[in-house]
């Protein structure tokens, strides 16, 4: 029994010694293949994605409140009249919607009646003024005669005082008549202002298109009760369209105001030429890119709002640039346009994978242009990148 126990103990020690030696050896290196960053003379092309938007967009809202009595009508595909709908093209001046105007017309009629009444009262006041002036003229003559008679002591004091009082009354009558006319004229101006306001309100029951365009949105139907300010339609002028996109600061030199830029529309299968009509003076605070606006004609209305456009920018002269195999690229987990590669680092006779961020350019065959992050001659890992992390022990194989 003692011999068996001794043999068992020695065996256990041998096993433990083997485990310790294996642990000391560490993990096995992952075999990987590498490629060397090379250079090639290419003419880089940059592509940016943008979206078609209208040249002008107008949000049309009612200025007055009321029930929608009618909408503009067009003939549908079946030949029958139908209310206007999204996608319809309309000319400038089209009455898109009309409110029930009974109340507004009643207000206008009331204002018109008030105006006529005030005009009649003004005419009466003007006649009264003429009469008051005639009375004053006679009172002036009587007063002058009374002064002369009183000076010659040919008139008693009571008669003279009566002549003075009559004259003062006549003067006061003229002044009162003039004040009355001023008041009537003020009332007339107020009535005329009310008529103007009432006529404007009646006119504002019509929602009129200020420009030709396409109905991009419709928020109302016939019979709806709307408040003042209720948004009814969105009208887009697409006789010309715009394309917006953002570029980094190192690309601004490729864009000049008015310069032509090719724009590709995959949905149409063709490329068109646009003009640069706006360059942002400062970068977007969040994305750090500069917004560029292009404008291009759309007389046939084939370009629709919301279409995706690809803006192509070609380098004027060839450049010698570093290239890496596309299989070496690792996309960021966030799904952004950030990329990385694994390079080889030699240390103490061992090889390690080191993660390095790169900024890439256009694809060239099965390779990709590297704008930043690598130099010609750098060795990068091209396989098993999904098994690696920064600092992973690797072994380069052919």
Structural write-up:
There is one protein chain. The chain is α+β, with helices and mostly antiparallel strands. Among the domains are: about 25-40 and about 320-395, conserved putative lor/sdh protein from methanococcus maripaludis s2 fold (Beta Barrel); about 105-205; about 235-315, Elongation Factor Tu (Ef-tu), domain 3. Helix content is about 30%, strand content about 40%. The chain has helices spanning about 1-25, 100-150, 155-205; strands at about 30, 35, 40, 45-60, 65-70, 75, 80-85, 90, 95-100, 205-210, 215-220, 225, 230-245, 260-265, 270-280, 290-295, 310-315, 320-325, 330, 340-345, 350-365, 365-370, 380, 395. Strands 1, 3, 18, 19, 20, 21, 22 and 24 form an eight-stranded mixed beta sheet that branches.
Q: How many beta-strand elements?
A: 24
Q: How far is it from the N-terminal to the C-terminal residue, by CA?
A: 56 Å
Structural class: alpha+beta
Q: What does the largest sheet look like?
A: 8 strands, mixed
Give the integer mean of the pLDDT values.
86
Give Rg in angstroms: 46 Å
List low-pLDDT spans: 1-23
């Amino acid at each position: 029994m003692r011999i068996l126990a001794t043999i068992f103990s020695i065996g256990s020690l041998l096993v433990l010694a083997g485990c310790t030696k294996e642990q000391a050896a560490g993990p096995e290196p992952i075999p990987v293949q590498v490629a060397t960053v090379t250079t090639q003379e290419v003419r880089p092309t940059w592509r940016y994605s943008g979206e078609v938007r209208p040249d002008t967009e107008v949000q049309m809202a009612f200025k007055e409140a009321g029930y929608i009595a009618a909408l503009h009508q067009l003939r549908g595909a079946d030949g029958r009249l139908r209310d206007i709908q999204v996608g319809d093209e309309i000319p400038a001046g089209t009455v898109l919607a009309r409110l029930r105007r009974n109340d507004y017309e009643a207000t206008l009629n009331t204002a018109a009646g008030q105006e006529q009444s005030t005009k009649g009262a003004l005419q009466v006041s003007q006649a009264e003024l003429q009469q008051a002036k005639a009375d004053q003229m006679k009172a002036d003559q009587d007063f002058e005669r009374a002064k002369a008679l009183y000076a010659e002591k040919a008139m008693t004091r009571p008669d003279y005082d009566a002549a003075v009082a009559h004259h003062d009354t006549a003067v006061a009558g003229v002044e009162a008549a003039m004040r009355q006319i001023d008041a009537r004229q003020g009332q007339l101006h107020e009535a005329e202002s009310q008529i103007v306001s009432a006529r404007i309100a009646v006119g504002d029951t019509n929602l009129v298109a200020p420009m030709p365009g396409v109905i991009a949105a419709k928020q109302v139907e016939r019979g709806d009760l709307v408040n003042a300010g209720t948004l009814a339609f969105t009208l887009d002028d697409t006789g010309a369209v715009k394309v917006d996109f953002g570029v980094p600061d190192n690309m601004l030199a490729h864009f000049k105001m008015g310069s032509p830029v090719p724009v590709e529309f995959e949905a149409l299968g063709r490329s068109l030429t646009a003009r640069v009509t706006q360059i942002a003076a400062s970068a977007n605070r969040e994305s750090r890119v500069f917004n560029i606006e292009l404008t291009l004609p759309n007389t046939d209305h084939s370009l629709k709002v919301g279409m995706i456009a690809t803006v192509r920018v070609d380098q004027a002269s060839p450049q010698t640039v570093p290239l890496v195999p596309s299989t070496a690229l690792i996309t960021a987990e966030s799904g952004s346009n950030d990329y990385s590669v694994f390079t080889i680092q030699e240390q103490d006779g061992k090889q390690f994978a080191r993660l390095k961020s790169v900024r890439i350019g256009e694809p060239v065959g099965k390779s990709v242009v590297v704008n930043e992050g690598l130099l010609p001659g750098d060795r990068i890992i091209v396989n098993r990148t999904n098994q690696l992390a920064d600092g992973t022990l690797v072994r380069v194989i052919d």
